[in-house]
């Protein structure tokens, strides 16, 4: 493809992430729109009839496992395998925070929302890698794969800065207390989700 050396170095990472996000996005879409879960249209429903230690449905548990495995790998990959970037430290923090949220959420059956969180991440990143107009790419490169300005992609704004606060943060910060007034780890989970929101704003800017 006549890749420049810096682009050739990023190609395996980009190809892997495109593959993973396509699969996880598809599974997130399945959970949100092709099952009986009302999470997308009624985000507070994740807390209806919530009880400490309740069982996590198998299809949701698969989403937890999928995302947890990916972010566990991503911590190692960002530190030792991927091309180092100016925001790699922030990316490492993002992966640690996300992995903590997923693992503790599953352990405490706290917030059965990996479908919402996962589809938010997968959709915005899939759009980031696949649909932005290329900038400074060499001839023959598929446009958009290595564009440093892909943060301006509409999907990045729509999924991370609109749907994520509107659906996930609304449910966890407000609706959770309405359904379960003494819900445990309220501040712990929401503080981490707000940290992710600040990172999304940072990347968008």
UniProtKB/TrEMBL annotation:
GO BP field: ceramide biosynthetic process
Topology with respect to the bilayer = Multi-pass membrane protein
Listed transmembrane segments = 18-40, 60-77, 89-108, 183-204
Major localization class: membrane
InterPro entries from the xrefs?
Lag1/Lac1-like, TLC-dom
Q: Name one Pfam family in it.
A: TRAM_LAG1_CLN8
- Is this entry keyworded Methyltransferase? no
Q: Which residues form the TLC domain?
A: 9-205
- Keyword tags: Membrane, Transmembrane, Transmembrane helix
Query: Which pathway does this polypeptide act in?
Result: Sphingolipid metabolism; Lipid metabolism; sphingolipid metabolism
Query: What are the recorded GO MF terms, alphabetically?
Result: sphingosine N-acyltransferase activity
GO cellular component terms, semicolon-separated: membrane
- Annotated catalysed reactions: sphinganine + octadecanoyl-CoA = N-(octadecanoyl)-sphinganine + CoA + H(+)
Q: Where in the cell is it found?
A: Membrane
Please report the name of this protein according to its UniProt entry.
Answer: CERS1 synthase
